[in-house]
Amino acid sequence: FTSVGFLRFKRTCRRIHEVLAADTVMSQIFADLRVPPEVKTLEQLSFFDAVYQANLYVENRIGFYFASTKIDFSDDANIKNVVGSRARIEEVRKVMDRFRNATVIIEAHCGTRAPREIATPFSRQRGLAVCSELILRRPQGVNITSDEQVILNARGLEIAICAANSKHPYGVLAREGKGWVELYLCLQNLELPPRPGYWLDEESPNKEGL
What we know:
7 helices; elongated; single chain; 5 strands; 41% helix
């Protein structure tokens, strides 16, 4: 864009947002689709649609074998674990390839039975396993090529305990002592999908530093 073109684009996006906000029918459609109020531009709207179509609003976790840093790609219905991990990683790759300025945030957790002294480094190894799948094994042309596009947070027991104490569906896995990785995508300060309520639990006595 030239500077003039960019200003016109901003005005167009602002006007679209105003029209949508003023139109009761369109506002209801946006509400039904759970479009975040932070969506202000056409690119953000397109980004939201891509993340939504990737089913990350339904499930954004990557599963692991019990007490292991190996990703569970088996999708064995007889084992209580996260299913669809391989397909989920591929969907994230596609979104990252489409939106070159997007960032993937890897939030890595260990199981609630893990000893506290190893919890954070262990969860980091799980995060690195997912990072490896996203970067080192990416198909040619997929645009996850630098550390700036990947943020890895090793959470140890911090969030897993909050999840275990919550009523959120993800709490089931936490109460069984199993860890997981959550994937979030961020573009222009818009992070998707929204974080579960247990992320807001500030009263947990088990907070850890990274």
